[in-house]
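Hi Prof. W.,

I finally got the Amidohydrolase family protein prediction working! I wasn't sure whether to trim anything, so I left the full sequence exactly as given:
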Amino acid sequence: MLLTAFLTIIFVLISRVSFSQNELDGKIVINNVKVYNPKNGMSPILQSVTIENGIIESIKPLEIGNENVESVDGKGCVLIPGLIDVHVHMSFGALSMREMMSPMLSEGLIMRKVGGNAEKMLLRGFTSVRDAGGPIFPLKKAIDEGKLTGPRIWPSGATISQTAGHGDFRTPDESSRKFFGEPSRAERFNATFIADGRPEVLTAVRENLRFGASQIKLMAGGGTSSAYDPVDVTQYTFDEMLAAVEAAEDWGTYVMVHAYTPRAVQRAIKAGVKCVEHGQMLDQKTLRMMKKNNVWLSTQNLVESTPDMDPMRVEKRKPVIEGQEQLWPLAKKMKLKIAWGTDFLFEPELNEQQNAYILRLQKWFTNAEILKMITQDNAELLQLSGLRSPYPGKLGIIEEGALADLILVDGNPLEDLTLIAKPEEKFLLIMKEGRIYKNILN
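And this is what came out:
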């Protein structure tokens, strides 16, 4: 079975380098750096940052190195927190739709694409991500155990969708599991749960939580890449949404919803959802409702449709592309809690542009606002998982007691944000949990 292959090879057959516990427990001092802190900007003097057991132990004015402690000379460069992308699909972002649907899909292909993509993401400086749906638990386990290199992952597990919803990826020859007893290919791959009615929604949520989901992803409205549902439709009844929220809250975590329209988002807010993904078609009334209820807006800046894109998808995307030009500045003006993500799905060639997509925010935000969004603000959203957060501790900030996820940048990104889009050249050192994964200082 393809599902068995996927679940097994990711964490059993991976033969990457494993890091010993001693490396995590060792003390490292990064000397001679300017420290950027989203709270108060750039340090006016050169400093020394001491890391021990994966935690930032101290930040002090530049001092003479202790020969008994491993020291890294930062050469006056800028130290920033690790980057965070709160809307990725680690598995399906690494594979094209043709590869996913091919009968020739093999263990080797999955191994090469998904494992390689995770490592490349970390080496682009993304030390933490929130996976917004798909088969993720084996990959996360392999990374956490040091069998694979990659970012910290906040997993959602399979998306939860109604029949004919955005997560219903059945092909025309696949009938309903409920009536004919056979789960679809996407369900077998743990890509989605097609769940209708309160009992099925409760079961789907609890299944994901059982396997370690840190939050739940519910499809609450139509999508641009799905075949059956127009963008304008509202998905799931209030009671079905409420069931998902209740099940998640019983585990101390939250539900995020895929939705574009006011009707879908207003229903989700009333049901107790804490985060809206996308939302490019929202009006001021709905945004005010989000602000009043302390709901996060986790959105993207999508690229224009391409000439070779399916005509149906081009047509469905029009109101979304048009809407985002109003959404970003309006959400900023209304001071919503805003998070940023990429949402690359079945287009693996886009992954290399992950950093460059950050620059698209310059249309509406200053460099300082953008750096804060992709570090401190995104980290705050990750911690909405509460006790279900897989990595307790502070992220997105450089201060004593915070987790040591750090990037040393050759230059000042507050002055030149394009440095962020050149990770291979400008990210001199990348550290996650106190471990150095890249160092080209010498």
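Residues 221 and 234 are 5 Å apart (CA to CA). Does that look reasonable to you?

Thanks,
D.
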